[in-house]
Design goal:
With about 300 residues, the protein is of the alpha+beta class. The chain has helices at about 5-10, 45-60, 110-115, 135-140, 180-185, 200-215, 235-245, 270-290, and strands at about 20-25, 35-40, 65, 75, 80-85, 95, 100-105, 120, 140-145, 145, 150-160, 165-170, 185-195, 195, 225, 250, 255, 265, 300. It folds into 3 domains: about 1-85, Uridine Diphospho-n-acetylenolpyruvylglucosamine Reductase, domain 2; about 95-200, Uridine Diphospho-n-acetylenolpyruvylglucosamine Reductase, domain 3 (2-Layer Sandwich); about 220-300, Alpha-Beta Complex (Uridine Diphospho-n-acetylenolpyruvylglucosamine Reductase, domain 1), CATH 3.90.78. It contains 8 helices and 19 strands. Residues about 305-310 have low confidence and may be disordered. GO terms for molecular function: FAD binding; UDP-N-acetylmuramate dehydrogenase activity.
């Protein structure tokens, strides 16, 4: 661990040993099952610990990366240096009248199910989004005509200095698959949603329909990062890829899905390099055939592999 030994010891003073992992493979924490090692992988159990980890990283000038549940993310084969922070242990969901308060690490699907259980309408669109609450705010996640900005009224975050702030939804500049969260360096601790009372059977019927549509059209049998590209104005990304005869095209173990052209799947132990190469192949081909630039919806982070991976 080299220079990180002292940082490791200081992290143990913030949280317990089971919440600090050394040289942890990030492919164990991403939907694509891709990614090299994190020097230090930390999973705080409360808001104070999150703040203290951020402050420690600042004091010690240690590189710091926030990782959600890795559903809309590709981590490169060289992994990530410094501290990688995961909020997967922060997953409480509570209901207060027509409002739901959900911690950052909770699955947004579980929040939609909690809304159903209390006959609250507004989050039906999220019943098939495979991400955390924090990730959903980060990119203003949406599906089937709904998006986070439709129902979010407030959020609690930690800023770059480790200070806790309560912000209105308007202060996040939520737009199509974007927010100012990455620009501001915020770490979402919790989201507060304003919903409406509805009829349980009607809400369930909508969620069942959306779930069926998702399961019948998306290649859920293979690891992937979900929809790879944003919808280009006037087009559908999947249709452009399909019309470019790219379905089934593969590099190594990564393949353009034959079930849904907008997905790239890890079909056979792909590396992140192979997966990213398929993304770039799709972008080049669609640009050549249709003069349309496909912009990635998925985020790519980490370092390239400089030498063959060595399994400890």
């Amino acid at each position: 661990m080299g220079n990180y030994h002292q940082i490791y010891q200081k992290l143990l003073a913030i949280t317990s040993e089971e919440n600090v992992m050394v040289n942890e493979y990030l492919k164990n924490h991403t939907y694509t099952q891709l990614g090299g090692k994190a020097d230090l992988f930390v999973t705080p159990t409360n808001y104070d610990e999150v703040q203290e980890v951020v402050k420690l990283a600042n004091r010690e000038d240690v590189a710091f990366t926030l990782l959600g549940n890795g559903s809309n993310l590709i981590v490169k084969d060289g992994g990530i240096r410094g501290i990688v922070l995961s909020l997967k242990r922060l997953k409480d969901i509570t209901t207060e009248d027509e409002r739901i308060i959900a911690q950052s690490g909770a699955a947004i699907i579980d929040v939609s199910r909690s809304a159903l259980a209390d006959a609250l309408t507004g989050l039906e669109f999220a019943c098939g989004i495979p991400g955390t609450v924090g990730g959903a705010l980060f990119m203003n996640a949406g599906a089937y005509g709904g998006e986070i900005k439709d129902v979010l009224y407030e959020t609690v975050v930690v800023d770059r200095n480790g200070e806790q702030l309560t912000l209105s939804a308007d202060e996040l500049d939520l737009d199509y698959r974007t927010s100012n969260i990455p620009e501001k360096g915020y770490i979402v601790l919790e989201a507060r949603f304003q919903l409406k009372n509805g009829e349980y059977d009607e809400i369930k019927a909508v969620m069942d329909d959306l779930t069926h549509r998702r399961e019948s059209k998306q290649p859920l049998e293979y690891p992937s990062c979900g929809s790879v590209f944003k919808r280009p104005p006037g087009y559908f990304a999947g249709k452009l890829i399909q019309d470019s005869d790219l379905q089934g095209k593969s590099i190594g173990g990564a393949e353009v899905s034959t079930k849904h052209a907008g997905f790239i799947v890890n079909k056979n132990n792909a590396t992140a390099t192979e997966y990213i190469s398929v993304i770039e192949l799709v972008q080049r081909t669609v640009k050549e055939k249709f003069a349309v630039s496909l912009e990635r919806e998925v985020k790519i982070i980490g370092e390239d592999m400089e030498e063959p991976a060595k399994v400890d």
